[in-house]
Write a structure and sequence with these properties.
Layout lengths: L4 H14 L5 H8 L13 H13 L7 H11 L4 H9 L9 H6 L8 H9 L1 H9 L9 H20 L8 E4 L4 H7 L28 H4 L5 E4 L2 H5 L7 E4 L6 H16 L7 E6 L12 H11 L2 H4 L2 H6 L3 E6 L9 H13 L9 E5 L11 E5 L4 H11 L4 E4 L2 E4 H10 L9 H14 L6 H18 L11 H18 L5 E2 H7 L2 H13 L3 E6 L2 E6 L2 H15 L12 H12 L4 H35 L14 H21 L4 H21 L2 H12 L6 H8 L4 H12 L5 H4 L3 H11 L2 H15 L2 H38 L13 H21 L4 H23 L6 H12 L1 H23 L10 H11 L2 H4 L2
Parallel strand pairs: 3-6, 3-7, 4-5, 5-6
Antiparallel strand pairs: 1-2, 1-7, 8-9, 10-12, 11-12
């Protein structure tokens, strides 16, 4: 029956309200050819109705749904509510449609035993169902067919890519109290890995963290099975962050294929839905959760669409939203908000498992999610890729032989004009190097060579099909026009092909589309009744859009497009082509204008703070640096990052680039490093890594930040040689000395290793090794002192004639084992909670063992006589803090002096030793011990 789904859901519910369990159920059942005696006791109105629908679908009694409905309404007259419902959703004559009749049947709900069997023993459960031992759900065939079609479609799409599974990392959360304890005075303490609801983000939502920023947090762990994580009941919606070309789409497609394959063998399978967000756009109003649901519904085939509400209620739908970056920038924030709300809840229905892929976390600040990050290729993945793609063990590049291992190390180290750790760029780079045997000047060179070589190869492979294949220049011109129209239209990555034909030569457009599909540059899709064309990769669209602007010189309102990612990348390509220097100048002026607005905002914030302090008689502090509005800060940081990439890929030594971008870049980095959030500070530090020069003011605040991961990035920048220690009053070796003095070495070892690796020189490795080595030597000396004290305690007790408590138990295996466990626990806890006082944990262990071990021995023997004496020893033990400081401070200062002597030639800041001594004396608690 072609009446809408709303009717078939509302009608039995309304009948149930009017006739909770009356004669109409038996009437419906009998008219459908059933036996009223077979109705179970307590059957509901809805159950009877759907049982009748099932019988009608199977041809029972020769009754149609339309005639059944009319008889029910004639024989059981009801109030105006029923008639109004029928008027809103009138049944039509073609009610015999199989699919539509089938679709109004309810999903079969498994009992507890079948649910457990389907989850734990799916193959056996499916076998028993197939042989008829167990009833087969009526929807199983439809869902299984959908799963197979979806899996086949995505496997075909994946097979056209060279794919190495990227490493994804799950960004964990840290305890709020621990974070606040770590840096109570930091105004923006919340790190990137926190739930977004706990971060006050810009108006567009979220913290605008990219994958490169999110992964900097040291609290992360590898995820081997995204599907398993997604299906956990306790898991929040997942967000997969990754740079363009890092493999987000392929990762989602692999996850969908894996889930579909696993669910095919179940009797009550989950239904994965793969939604491409590029075509999601609501014109003229803000989208709602209902619009998102319509998008999800449209992705499903007709037989499954009407089951979506039940699939959602039973948590059997899993939605994969791919390509948030490809959505139109028109109303982008409102669309993101609707997606966030859909993933959270819908009409009180528990949220379905959901996975998003995006470049930046632009979600609503209220959207709580679990964040995953796709990392760039590491050494092992680059090596594996080269082995699989580059067949020759040796390659000559610019007259120099490169082995695969040497080439992999060079790629990982960086320094190329392209980001070769990105999988897509690495693929283009390998192709370029194998044929050209020279390093590319930019990513534009990679893309140009790929398209030219690929087009010529496809012409040679054309065969005898006699299909027109236009000349290369003609095809490229048409593709460029397609790309520019898509980008200018700003409605996602797809465009109706009819519009492309209307805007140009229809026959030429047909030939260009056919050639683009043959070359893997273009592909087709549908959005409802519209036939759409899109580029297979967003980098292709950006490259050809730049080609069109270079050739045709259209009038582009660059000021209104500088914050759109697609237009930013198009502008970068245009600059790399040697064109649009006027656009570059315009971009530099726009950044300068934005800097003036930011400075004015900071002045207003400072004035407001001073006014508040005066009004409250100085109770409001004015020492903290004023902050920028979130939206203003995010927009400026995005443009500074783009400036960094332009100068890196084109060369900051170019006079035109330096004149246009360097002044605003330097000022912007300094301003945001001083007044930005920790995320923005790290963005600026990473931007400095792309540009040669000294940015001393950009490092001053991050080096002193109480947020560890911010300071770690400042250390890496400093060690990489981009900043001269003498100019900022510090350097890598000096910062390690400061950490040595205040006892922070354990928390910084990972940062030292990364910084030394980034620097790649012996000086940095020596500073890191000396700091770690002398610190460990200090711990070893303290441990030896503690062991000596512990071994002498029984002798001391014997010499003093102490029989109560009996310290001789410390000399036995049990006593020594207990003391060793106590030592490990105390040192481990202090290392995590307060590493500055680790000396106290080490030296206090012997005294703690002298109290705890005899106490346990006394209590276990049933004697309470020595407990009072032991409590007195506990009180006396607190007085040993001063003695511990007296013993630990000389050792600490001696090894600190040894480190300073070993690195004297490396330290450029010329800080006096007394500065380090004063820091150690104050930070590690020695001063308190001597009071």
């Amino acid at each position: 029956m072609t009446a809408t789904q709303d009717f078939w859901w509302e009608f039995p519910a309304l009948l149930a309200q009017l006739y909770p369990l009356g004669p109409w159920e038996e009437h419906v059942w009998q008219r459908a050819g059933g036996d009223s005696s077979r109705l179970p006791t307590g059957v509901t109105a809805r159950d009877a109705w759907y049982a009748a629908v099932d019988l009608v679908h199977r041809g029972g009694g020769g009754v149609t749904l339309e005639s059944l409905l009319r008889e029910v309404m004639d024989d059981f007259p009801v109030n105006a509510g029923i008639h109004a419902l029928v008027a809103r959703h009138p049944p039509t004559a073609d009610d015999a449609s199989g699919d539509l009749t089938f679709s109004v049947l309810r999903l079969t709900r498994p009992g507890l035993l079948r649910h457990v069997a389907d989850r734990l023993f799916p193959r056996a459960h499916r076998f028993l169902t197939r042989i008829g031992t167990l009833d087969e759900p009526h929807e199983l065939g439809k869902i299984t067919a959908y799963l197979r079609e979806l899996r086949a479609e995505l496997q075909h799409e994946i097979s056209s890519h060279i794919y190495i599974p990227p490493v994804a990392k799950r960004i964990s959360r840290k305890d709020t109290a621990e974070i606040e304890k770590e840096a109570p005075d930091e105004p923006f303490i919340l790190p990137v890995n926190w739930a977004i609801r706990q971060i006050v983000g810009p108006s567009s939502g979220g913290d605008s963290a990219t994958a490169q920023i999110a992964v900097l947090n040291r609290k992360s762990k590898s995820i081997r099975n995204i599907v398993k994580l997604l299906l956990k009941r306790t898991t929040r919606p997942l967000v997969l962050l990754g740079d363009p070309g890092s493999g987000k789409t392929l990762t989602l497609q692999q996850a969908v294929v894996a889930l579909a394959t696993a669910e095919e063998r179940r009797v009550f399978p989950r239904v994965p839905v793969y939604v491409r967000l590029g075509e999601f756009h609501v014109q003229g109003r803000a989208p709602t959760v209902g619009d998102v649901r319509k998008l999800v519904t449209a992705t499903l085939p007709a037989p499954l669409r009407d089951w979506l509400p039940e699939l959602e209620r039973e948590q059997r739908i899993v939605v994969f939203f791919d390509g948030m970056d490809e959505m139109s920038r028109d109303g982008y924030g409102a669309h993101i908000l609707a997606l966030s709300e859909y993933a959270g809840t819908y009409d009180g229905t528990p949220p379905s498992p959901t996975l998003f892929s995006c470049r930046i976390a632009d979600f609503s600040p209220k959207f709580i999610h679990q964040r995953l990050v796709i990392l760039p290729f590491g050494p092992s993945q680059v090596t594996a890729y080269l082995r699989s793609f580059v067949q020759a063990p040796q390659m000559v590049i610019d007259r120099t032989e490169w082995s695969q291992a040497k080439l992999a190390r060079h790629i990982i180290r960086g320094g190329l004009a392209v980001e070769a750790t990105n999988p897509f760029v690495l693929w283009l780079l390998c192709l370029y190097l194998q044929h050209r045997h020279t390093w590319p000047g930019s990513r534009v060179a990679l893309l140009r060579y790929f398209h030219e070589q690929n087009y010529d190869r496809k012409i040679g492979e054309r065969g005898d099909d006699n299909l027109p294949f236009p000349p290369r220049d003609q095809a490229f011109a048409a593709w460029s026009r397609f790309a520019y129209l898509i980008t200018e239209r700003n409605r996602g990555p797809g465009i109706p092909f009819a519009l492309l034909r209307d805007e140009g030569d229809p026959a030429g457009s047909d030939e260009a589309l056919r050639a683009g599909k043959r070359c893997g540059v273009l592909k087709e899709s549908r959005n409802g009744e519209e036939y759409l064309v899109r580029f297979t990769h967003q980098r292709f669209q950006e490259y050809f859009a730049a080609c069109y602007i270079q050739a045709e010189r259209p009038s582009v309102d660059w000021l209104g497009k500088l914050d759109a990612p697609r237009w930013q990348e198009t502008m970068l390509n245009l600059v790399l082509m040697g064109q649009a220097m006027d656009v570059l100048t315009l971009f530099g002026q726009a950044v300068n204008d934005q800097l003036r607005e930011c400075r004015a905002a900071l002045e207003r914030a400072s004035a407001g703070r001073e006014t508040a302090a005066a009004a409250t008689a100085g109770t409001v502090g004015t020492d903290e640096a004023p902050t920028l509005p979130e939206e203003m800060e995010t927009a400026l940081a995005d443009r500074i990052e783009l400036s960094s990439r332009i100068m890196h890929q084109m060369g900051a030594g170019s006079p035109l680039v330096r004149e246009a971008l360097m002044p605003s870049f330097t000022e912007g980095v300094t301003l945001l490093a001083s007044h930005g959030t920790p995320i923005t500070q790290v963005k600026m530090l990473r931007a400095c890594l792309n540009v040669p020069g000294n940015f001393k003011e950009a490092l001053e605040k991050p080096l002193g930040s109480k947020v560890h991961w911010v300071r770690d990035q400042a250390l890496i920048l400093m060690a990489s040689g981009q900043a001269t220690g003498g100019e900022i009053g510090s350097d890598f070796a000096t910062e390690i000395g400061f950490d040595f003095a205040n006892g922070a070495i354990p928390a910084r070892l990972g940062a030292y290793w990364r910084a030394a690796r980034a620097a790649g020189d012996a000086r940095s490795w020596w500073a890191a090794a000396a700091g770690a080595g002398f610190y460990l030597a200090n711990l070893a000396a303290l441990t030896a002192l503690a062991v000596g004290i512990f071994l002498r305690l029984p002798r001391v007790g014997k010499a003093l004639g102490l029989s109560s408590p009996d310290l001789s138990v410390l000399a036995g295996p049990a006593g020594r084992g207990a003391a060793a466990l106590l030592f490990v626990a105390a040192v481990g806890a202090m290392t995590r909670l307060n590493p500055r006082r680790i000396w106290f944990a080490i030296l206090a262990t012997p005294l703690a063992a002298a109290v705890i071990v005899p106490t346990v021995a006394t209590l276990s023997s049933g004697s309470w006589d020595d407990v009072l004496t032991l409590l007195v020893l506990v009180v006396v033990g607190f007085g040993a803090f001063g003695a511990g400081a007296l013993a630990a401070s000389p050792l600490h200062l001696a090894f600190l002096g040894a480190y300073l002597a070993a690195t004297s030639r490396l330290r450029e800041s010329n800080r006096a030793p007394r500065v380090f001594v004063a820091l150690a004396w104050r930070s590690c608690g020695y001063e308190s011990g001597f009071r």
